[in-house]
Amino acid sequence: MVIKTTKAQKQNNRKEADNLYRVLFSNSKIPMLLIDPVDGAIVDANQSACDYYGYPHQQLTSLNINAINQLSDIEIKAEMHKAATQKRDHFFFIHKLADGSLRDVEVHSGQLEIDDKQLLYSIIHDITERRAAEQELKELNRNFITLLNNTSDFVYFKDRNSRFQFCSQTLADITGHSHWQDMVGKHDLEVFPPDTAKIYYEEEQPIFREGVALLNRVDPYYDEQGEKGWVSTSKWPVFDENGVDVVGLFGISRDVTAQHKAQEELKIAASVFQNISEGVMITDSKGTIIEVNQAFCQLSGYSRDEIIGRTPNFLKSGHHDASFFQSLWQSLNDNRYWQGDIWNRRKDGSIFACRTCISVLTDEEGKVDCYIGLHSDITAQLQHFKEIEHLAYYDALTELPNRVLFADRLNQTLAVADRDKTSVAVCFLDLDSFKPVNDNYGHRAGDLLLIEAANRLKDCIRAGDTAARMGGDEFALTLTQLTSEVDLQHALDRILTSIAQPFTLPIGETICVSASIGVCLYPQYRNHKSQLLRYADQAMYEAKAKGRNQYFIHGTTATAD
């Protein structure tokens, strides 16, 4: 039996379908639009679309879809062609919201007939965050691939069955693979010689079984030419999302063949350097101490265990500035050698001097393998040299500079005066009535008086000035930073007043002496630099002749009491 559907029934069915569509369209939480495919006009929009785009319904339905879709006509056609090629029923567009912000959207469109009119029914999904995450993941993946392709270390990840999931290109190279992806899915036994594969497999079992990391393990390996080398390896367990089961391991191995060979050679030489008298320190290429001998331990006061693994900086005494060490490293870099004297600090805090020779050992490629330093204690030698130097330049009784050092400082002072265009007073001072002190109280009393006079002179002069003992009871001075004749007068009066103060001898006796000072001014006698002190000496005799306890300036007739 055939049931015929009347025209009224068809209209009723269509009306029911339209009503159902209206309910679904209006109540959907997903933004939906009805679009005229001919001119792009937005015919209708549900409340979710109004909320998403930020427009009231009347305003949104007055817009054309091209006001929202920010792709050009060419870009839209390209996207539609791409969707057809990829056999997908959705499109990727960029939509603009009412506040001007742009959002990445995934649009699912289909044809729909309403009131005998063909419309496009579009469902909009915001994928902005997803796109950002995809881009971030893409960049991360690119950076990760760059790392695998360029790192010099052997980097790898293995699954629970000890099969490679990825590795660095360096590891692929030494195992004879043209690309690291060719290693994916392979076991150690498929890429390494049996003996080394066994080592790797056995050391990884506790990682999988107990979840314990393996750190800084030195293992053998063979390069692409079959040559044996050594790597320092660290491997860490990778747990599942619950942090319970080990699902793989991540490893990094660094080639330490050169260091390993150097250490082996050092073992052979151990019996030699442990018995020589010089202290020996050996560091790796990074400056970390890897060996010292007993002589160095005795020299520094530290035990071997307290030294190994540190850098030589722990011996710094503070005696040398940064330029000293810059020069040292410059010599090591340029000449592979440095020799000089270094002041170091022992464990007990005392300072000692070392005559040090540092040599650089390199590998076959010229890269630094290690540094070897030989250290000889020359503290006593330098101390003796300093004592000799002090005797050569300082007066043994008063500790003032002697005639030799005064001449050197005078030359430096005059050079500064020429540069700064300032004045200098060169003075020659003699104690008045000094001989009776020796005659009446003895030479010991005279020496004490000279020491006290020297101390008073040092207290009277400024920083940068010099007071020196020329012999007997004669002293020489340079006075600088003079701004006027009055300034000079005050300085000389201060000296005369200080010397004229009574001296008390250890026996309780009080004695008085005075001073006569001769002065020669510079640059008045610029052309007679070598005669300045002699002119001051002559002026001193003029001061004595005029009654003592005063000064006389060479080339003048003025005196001052």
SSE layout:
Blueprint: H1 7-27, E1 32-35, E2 42-45, H2 47-53, H3 57-60, H4 65-68, H5 73-85, E3 90-96, E4 102-114, E5 117-126, H6 128-150, E6 154-159, E7 164-167, H7 169-174, H8 188-191, H9 194-210, E8 214-222, E9 228-239, E10 246-255, H10 257-273, E11 279-284, E12 289-292, H11 294-300, H12 304-307, H13 322-335, E13 337-345, E14 351-362, E15 368-377, H14 379-393, H15 403-420, E16 423-432, H16 435-441, H17 443-460, E17 466-471, E18 474-482, H18 485-500, E19 503-504, E20 510-511, E21 514-522, H19 532-545, E22 550-553, E23 559-560
Parallel strand pairs: 21-22
Antiparallel strand pairs: 1-2, 1-5, 3-4, 4-5, 6-7, 6-10, 8-9, 9-10, 11-12, 11-15, 13-14, 14-15, 16-18, 16-21, 17-18, 19-20, 22-23
Helix pairs in contact: 16-17, 17-18
Structure characterization notes:
It comes from Amphritea pacifica. By secondary structure, the chain is α+β, with helices and mostly antiparallel strands. 41% of the residues lie in helices and 29% in strands. It contains 19 helices and 23 strands. It is elongated and about 155 Å long. The N and C termini lie far apart (154 Å).
In short:
With 561 residues, the chain is an alpha+beta fold. The protein has a six-stranded mixed beta sheet with strand order 17-18-16-21-22-23, with helices on both faces. Strands 2-1-5-4-3 form a five-stranded antiparallel beta sheet, with helices on both faces. The model has no long low-confidence stretch (mean pLDDT 87).
Q: What strand order characterises the main sheet?
A: 17-18-16-21-22-23
Helical fraction equals 40-55%
Whole-angstrom Rg: 48 Å
What is the rounded distance between the termini? 154 Å
Total beta strand runs: 23
Q: In this structure, how is the largest beta sheet organized?
A: 6 strands, mixed
Shape: elongated
- What structural class results from the helix and strand content? alpha+beta
What amount of the residues lies in strands? 25-35%
- Average pLDDT confidence is 87
Number of helices: 19
